[in-house]
Write a structure and sequence with these properties.
The chain has a 4-stranded mixed β-sheet with strand order 1-4-5-8. The protein has a 4-stranded antiparallel β-sheet with strand order 2-3-7-6, with no helix packed on it. Strand 2 and strand 3 form a beta hairpin. It has 3 domains: 85 residues, no CATH class; 112 residues, Butyryl-CoA Dehydrogenase, subunit A, domain 2, CATH 2.40.110.10; 150 residues, Up-down Bundle (Butyryl-CoA Dehydrogenase, subunit A, domain 3). It has 404 residues and is of the alpha+beta class. 42% of the residues are buried. The chain is built from 12 helices and 8 strands.
Length: 404
Amino acid sequence: MDIDLSPEELAFRDEVRAFLAENLPAEVKDGAAASPTVFVEPDIGQRWNAVLNAKGWLAYQWPKEVGGTGWTPTQRYIFEKECALAGAPNLTVLGLKLVAPVIYTFGTPAQKAKYLPKILSGEDYWCQGFSEPGSGSDLASLQCRATLSEDGTHYKLNGSKIWTTHAHWANKMFALVRTDANVKKQAGISFLLVDMNQPGVSVRPLLTLAGDHEVNQVFLEDAIVPVEDRVAEEGDGWKLAKFLLENERGGSCHSPKLEYDLAQIEQAARDEPDGAGGKLADDKDWKRRVAKVRLGIQSLEMIELKILSEIAKGRAPGPQTSLCKLLASNLRQDVDLLAVDLYGPAGLQLDFARPLYGDNAPAPIHSKGAQVASARYLNSRAWTIFGGTNEVQAGIIARTVLGL
């Protein structure tokens, strides 16, 4: 695997760096740094999306024929890495990186024309209706029922979805629902696009240990979905879900963001006392911990680049993405634990006010980094659960990669 960039790719990297230096608003960067959750709030995320959309770079993973950049896998990687190293917020992954690929790969021309432009403009903000109170890791056991009307024009939905990120902001939800209870459980699932702004849809907030309102429970009571908003055929939902989850687990590169956050921690450690008259950055045990995490991040990057190489050859991401998800989840928690330990008692402050950025944000006791450390640590406990638990990923790796 050749990881050296060509002259053309180096020129592209320089173009991205220059754009970020000139166009990434300071308040957006500061807001992202002060957000403890996985997804930044829409006021930050959508503002950054709009900047990239105006440049024509928002749909950087999409094919050109559906409104994307048509970039090569290497260009996409360069873009993600430079955005991460510049401190830019994560993009609105649920619309751009999860449902959009499903729509442009499996959707009808009408679905593509209806939904893709609104994802780019920000008119549609999506949430994901997969997990249910009794169906988390065993997603195929979901029970949210979609019943086809007698005239075949629409489905009526009944059930609930849980841990639904940003459902309180979303006007659309892509959902897995059971359309046939008399076949193998995986075969009876369909993929529907649900309008959240209708009678029969209600959202209840679920506050995390850190006090963040990021996830919700969504209740569906006779909610209506037209048949034309079913993606692919009835019963194809499991196939589409596996496609989507491979993109979620391996469609992005986690290592650059981890690298950026570790660098911020290392920088801050130069000013933090070690309790023995020196600076924490010079403490041997601290340096050993940082080095171990850095090596893990570098190893993850090599795996991500290997997957990138396979994608560049026209191959699907495949089950190797589960390895990326597993490693990235553990490393995310390692990095956030380092941040809490870095600040000592000051890193234990847990301010429940939100947001922690902007004019109305509470003043930090020690520093902005310390203020967000505990909240981010608590939030990152979910990394080893969402998108498939560590145990699920280990099972996939054992079966499909190691052949056990």
